[in-house]
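Hi R.,

Here's the chain you asked about this morning:
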Amino acid sequence: MRRHWKDLAERSAKAAFSPDQVSEALPHALKKEILSAPIKEIRDIMDSDTLFPELRIERLDALRQAHRSAAATHVIDCTIAAAASGLTGEVGTHAALQNALQDTTRNALRGIEEHYQREASSRSAGYVRTRLDAASRQLDCGALARELLTPGTPPSPRSVTLPRQSGVDEGPSL
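And the predicted structure, written out as tokens:
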């Protein structure tokens, strides 16, 4: 499990973290994961004006060969599906990114829950699942996709940081 998903798992497993702190860690982890995808290049391909939609899919396939990360491959696959269904431009890019975020959320939360099923008691796993479900219900993948698609260059994965509480006054509420 990558560090950003471990942070989410830790927050969901410990009662010292409030539900809001768990909810805050989920979009952070998603951004860290998805930002390894070539979002700018995908947007350029989806915005391209072509008479033959198959060319757009061919360009996306070529992009997949250049970017081998799991997140990049998944976002490109979602973009190919959007292009194949006739979506183009900003609408197609947004739909593809939103679908990729939703799928990534489902897969990551399932992985965290499976980890706790194997490594902890069923009670602990149930607690983690309840907190992760609450966080996922608060997540708006459409808004997160719009944020990642704002004009300009998307932020780098390293620039996305999860706020840490390190001061005495920043501890859990009593």
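The mean pLDDT is 88.

Let me know if you need anything else.
M.
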